[in-house]
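Structure tokens please, single chain.
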Amino acid sequence: MYFPVGWPKALAVPPEDIGGLHSVLCNRDRVLFAVITERSLAIWYCRPCVQIVCHCRSEESVRTLGTNQKAAWRPDSTSVAVTTSQGHILFYHLEREVLAGHGANCYNQTRGGRFPSMRSSSSMEYGEGVPSIRMTFFTSVQIIGKIECLVCVRDELLVATGNGMLQRLRWDGVVNGKTGINIASIPFSIDLQHSRASTLDTPGITFTHIEYSGLLGGFAVVLPDGRAGLVNTLAGKVENNSLQGVWAQGLENVTCVAVNNRYRLIAFGCTDGLGVVYTVDDMTGALQVSHRLELSTKDYPDACMACGPVSRLRWSPDGCVLAMAWDRGGMAVWSVYGALLMCTLGADQGLYQESLRLHLFRIKSMCWSMEGYQLWMACETLDRTEVMELPTATSELLQLQFVKSTLTVNPCATNHEHLFLQGEDKLFINTGDLVMKQQWKDANMNRPLRESITRSGDSSPQKPVRQSNILVGNKQWLVVQIPITYLGSNWPIRYAAIDRTGFCIAVAGRCGLAHYAMFTRKWKLFGNETQEKDMVVTGGLTWWRDFIICACYNLNENRDELRMYPRASNLDNAFAYSCKVPSQILLLNLFRDMLVVFCADCHIALYSIERRDANPTPTCGGPSVVESSGRSQRSSLSDPSASLTLLQEISLASYIPHAVTVISVTLTSLRTETASSKQTSSRREAESLIVNVAGRLLMLQRDRSMTSGKENGDVRKKEKILPFCAPVVLASCVENMWSSSRSSPDKVHLSEALWLGCGASGMKVWLPLFPRNDEKRHSFLSKRIMLPFQLSIYPLAVLFEDAVVLGAANDTMKYDFQDCSSPGVSDSTPTRLFPFNVVDRTTQVYLHHIVRELLRRNLGSHALQIAKSCRSLPYFSHVLELLLHQVLEEEATAHEPIPDPLLPRIVDFIREFPEFLQTIVHCARKTEIALWSYLFASAGSPKDLFEQCLQSGSLETASSYLIILQNLEPAAVSRQHATLLLDASLDKGKWELAKDLVRFLRAIGNEDPESPPRTPVNPINAPIYPLPPPPQDGPFPGFAFGSQARPVRSYSMGENLAGVRERGSAKERDRERHHSVQATSTTNKKATTLKHLEDTAEHFFIDVILQRHARKLLGAGRLRELGSFAAHLNFELIGWLQKERSRAARVDDFVTSLHTLHRDFQWPMPVIALSQVISRSNSGSKIGSVGERSRSSSYDALEIGVNGMTLNDISEGQNRLRPNGMYASPSLRSSMDLLCDELRQEAMDSRQFNSNQKGDNGSTAATETSEMSASIVADDSELTLDDSMWNLANLDELEALSQELACRGPPHCETQLRYLLHVMMEAGCLEWAMLISLVLRDSMGVTRVVNTASLTDMPIDVVGRMREGLSYLELWADTECPGYKPFLLVIRGQAEVLTGIVDIQGSPQVTPIPTPESSLTSADFHALGFHGNASDTENPESEEQQSVIETELPQDGGQCALS
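Here you go.
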């Protein structure tokens, strides 16, 4: 509501004002301030803060009459009365003075060269200046008895004396009345009706504090014994027989009092540092406790006791906040109903304990300035640095700056939708967090799918755009500076309004108005200053579409008006619409196209707003537009204009005590009866008026009892003229109110609710209860319900559809003055003790509060409807966690048993959503272990929840449950569940999770298997919230090639057992020699040995699991997943492959394995270019011609395929050739056979070359033929084309090159394949190396495989399987994939080499190769005695393709991994 900004300003008191400051007091208009010291009276001006005049008393006057104590202003600011310590009242007379050369001002603002005026009129002064005032001492009056306090009542002074009398004095110093009023004779009672009154028993009792309130009709008084009450003037006169007091019950230690006329509240400060606020009962006149002002012991422990009693209380001019000061130092600012907005006692305020001990900071007096933008404080600091000396007092006059919410003075509908704060010269704007729709991007074009429609107007049906909710946070304030050209003569800013979009702002000061557009960053002011000075905004302003509506007073014609100014036009009366109103307007508001106006005569008027394009200067009720020039008649008719039509008037005179007590007036579509949600969302009309009267919310609904269902005429017109029923009270202690004028079909409950801000009581929501479609509606069931809940922030805006409350809070920044202290300024000054204040924007979700209150009231069906409507919110899972966490903390830490706990209902409610398992474990990990038993007693066993996670595939959530099991169960149970999760994560390809689980299993292997740990341990980095994927450290995002974190040891149980036996025999010999001395030591060593044995077994068990999964992947041919598995889990792939090359690494079906490689690595099947087939068929020319260039071209043509042919198309027998889309006809297939026959002869040249590749050192020479047959891996940047290449001889080569590049897979997949080829060659798995070379169409790779088979001691069955596999591949290529036929012809020589090896060493018994249609089974996974699940022996074939990132080939040939 009110928030301090910056440092307080220290006002320099002139040196002639000798003595400490006593008080500071403002006049009625809060323009002039009286600063009272012991012997002087000074008058200050508010803006600029300068001293106008000062009167210093002489030493003789001070010695005779006493020092100054208190003061009071006359209502017309012409006199000031000052009391003295010896019972005298000094009267000073003030009058305007005309100075020679300055006029009536002592300071004038002039236009400087650096700030030229932007106004058109030169006849007006830039500013009004500081008035020159002459102050003269008038007279002094001596009062019998000590003067305790004085107050101004109309044109009289009421003085309470120490002898128990009330004296009435006129401002000329004459005592009014023959005798005074004896305070002891005033009767006091509990109320004004039923209780019996009694007079005060103590003779000579008086009032220590007194404050007058015209709206309450009496005085708020404080007695010396600590009692307090309200003295009512029954007949409106201060006489003996017309006064009756009402006690403030329960108070016996009151120190001060302050009255709030607008909210009809009385605040009392107490000696215990607390504040108690009372309200006046309208029926009985009794004082009832409204709320208490008490600092939280959690945030401010023992603060009230340390600060002492309350010394000062001051309400702001609008009555929205209360400033409180303590006697021992410190201050706080509260909202009208007790919400703490600021306090200087917190650690964040920068008041260090050392500073508080050495420099006692006290506020002796304080007063609010005009519009509450500054708080004037007369401060005193007691310096206690010298222990032996008395503390020295230092006085200072401070001015603390504030910004306030626009809702305090202008509670229009548009201001409720944004965070909008106004200061004396600037505006703070924040649009808040927005939940916006984000379109899914096209992966290929990287742009929204809706932009894929061509500009030519192609309106072909597109795929629907998928949208997701994202949270757009905005914590920064947009500060808009008000121009000095307007502020210089119109300070202060009284009203401010922002439109619904948040882009247009309007402000109104002392006269006129101005508006600002954020998209142009320009202000618009009146071009004619006369028009600006002739209007004063009195009732606020608001935006309707692109029009500014203001309630103003026309000084030129002395009448109240409603004006509408279009934003697009110049700010001039020629473009304004004006409508006369009968009385002064105090408030205005909007509901759609209806304007609500509240006038000073307690009447509400409803107007209809219509946009029109007629004459821009029409009037309502006669001519009212001020025409300063003839251009108004010639204004463009295209300028927008609008008009107002009076619809209805309602009188509230019978329901409100005074027009000033009306805080806000709102027209809404809410009703106490609610229809179904479908009917509500389809139509929203003005149904009710909600009026905030001094904090009480009154609702006036339209009376539809007289409407007939037969009338189907102009229904809308009849609804507008329906009368309103008598008001009903909805709530009390209401500060702000929010309602939505827009309906949301998805969130009907939230958009149809009424939100109330109630200060210290938090918030309340008046929620509709819509019946279900299948539910019978009963008349006795509630249609709406009021739900209260607490907030940790001060609400200023409600985002209905986003379930978020926006607010602001005071924050501070500490600053060390030691580095920049000046010699003339002490470190103990109050300005050094105050921190730098800033305004921070705060946000809080309220959805979980609503759900909790509904479940508490057994309204779970409505809570479920609301929660399901908010499932799309990005923070919905966080809402469920907050709901569970708050209830768990409250019930688990309750001191008394709860007969009807809410936690089981909360758990069952969360169980209705898929986020149940995640919510339970996240809440548990954020809670103490001592509360877990209470949580899982309702949620279920962690073991069962863990199994549910496994069944649902939520492996990350299951890993979080492992932390719970580790702390609640023995280590054996944790190890068992971690093993299950490891198997599942390996099957799902969750490599990072599997890596963490392996580390977890190795960590818990050293723990005691029987006792669970008592403190939480987190060996697994299982995040509470989903985290982004970690960055790839290796050079290849697809495979993490290069370095290996640490090698995984391979354990041999036999070797370990032998070592254990050897160590055991050594210990036996030692025990025989030293049996009597080292018995205990031997026992410890034995235990250590056994534990090491157990740890070794655990590590061996983990290695068995990893090897089993690796065998499963290799047996299924999923080499890409095998590479990722090895890289992420630091699996020693080459060594393991060497052991498995005759078992799991053997390939029995080359065709199926080749298909699997193509699918996993996204590698297209090779096909033959259609143009080459047709051209060769027609010309009959041979590819091989004379010259190396033709030879190179022929080998390139051997590797060309048809782009886009898929395996499914081939297997289904469609035999399509792409991209031309032509089907292979019989003649075309014969042409392809002819091409293959022609290429066989040229392929014979490479046979001799391949057969002679053996050398003494076993190396393979790279020749031109092998280079040509190798796959192309060059960059696109290396392929440059010039004009010389564009000839008929090169066209075939270019086409072949383009087809080759088109048929290759992604570059990162090629890198991965080549690395796997390297690994397979190193491990001796020649069958897989052969298949990878075929996929890459790398004849050189095939040559290396054959050479390795011939040069090494390779089993004959491996060579035989490779030879038989190539034979089956040739057969498969002839029938199903012709694209492989040219390459198989090229490597036919290598196949013959394999045949020769088999013939020389003997024909092995080769396992019969199944047909391509047959499925393969994986290897046996029961090695080493480990028996897994039945599902582990299956060969799952996942159709999902994993996304990979482009990688590079390493130089060192390290391990590999997939991301």
